[in-house]
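Researcher: Please translate sequence to structure tokens.
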Amino acid sequence: MTDSSNVIDQSKPSIARVYDYLLGGKDYYPVDQEIGDHFKNNLPGSVVIATSNRQVLVRAVSELAQAGLRQFIDLGSGLPTADNVHQVAQRHAPDAKVAYVDNDPIVLAHGRALLASDERTAVIQADVREPKTIREHPDVTGLIDFDQPVAVIFSAILHHLNDDEDPADVVRFWSDQIPSGSAVFISHFRSGHNAETAAVEAKLQATFGRGRWRTDEEIAALFGDLEILEPGVVPVSQWRPEPVKGPTSVRELTVWEQLIVAGLARKP
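Model: Translation complete:
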């Protein structure tokens, strides 16, 4: 979720563009780089939050596609980068369909340019806080069959909703829209009750006027009545990691790796 304007404002930082910069992308402006450099230079190690979140998204989409899911809605998708949701899903299921949703006009422009020739994808500009508008958008209804299982993705987006914006209600809306056999994936900033958490939260609040760290229990509660699958809500680096060949040893996570968690739930 980013600015509500339909015009790209190069004078104000964008969550999507800062994230793109931290991931090594090219679609950002100096004002976004300034924020990204703050994390790189003043909070060394914090960039792993962005990179490890992207990695867990790839693993989650891969598992969902291999489990038979063929429809995905990526809410707060951000700018196109390597291993986008449709690329990951279609790697395992060429017929997979993906609807991307973001509120940043630059995401719409770049996304439509990238996906212009792919009839199995759609990109719309909309606000995650207005789920009914998204659900009824003709590009979504024309692509997604809500009588068949759907995977709804909230990758690093719900922590940008303050409590009075009721992120649990947003998730509940989508849970009510999707049929049995569907899934909901959430990754979310996790309260660390430490200096690192306070520093990142303060920077995001000062820059964007929003950002809410939540406890494991609060994040799990966002899933409502859905069945949270193993391994539960855990740091993203520990959520179904790729198998490692050869001898392994348990590595203690850095404080930064502990500040973002993920979980996957299914609708019975």
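Researcher: Any highlights?
Model: The beta strands are 71-75, 97-102, 121-125, 151-155, 183-189, 227-228, 234-235, 260-266.
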